[in-house]
Amino acid sequence: MNIGVWQILILAIVILVLFGRGRISEMMGDFGRGISSFKKGMTEDEASATSSASKPNAQIEPPATETSRASVSSGAPAQKAPSESGDTKR
After folding, report:
1. DSSP notation for 20-71
2. Contacts of 71 (CB under 8 A, 6+ apart)
3. What is the model's pTM?
């Protein structure tokens, strides 16, 4: 079955009537923003991969723990949370 110009035109009119011109342009704008953010993410990943590959002996700092963040942000000594080994009452 061949699809002709008239069938495509009728289909386009039906889609336009169902969704409206504003909704279709909004969907296409969202689609374009998604593609551009995907491309941006890909270039950032490539840039970070090349920069980390060029510095193989770079030292990586360990992430801050909850207790060290709490003492730094509040200025008070951090309190220990109950351990998961059974110190809590059941």
Report:
1. -HHHHHHHHHHHHHHHHHHHHHHHHHHHHHHHHHH-TT---PPPPPHHHHHH
2. 77, 78
3. 0.39
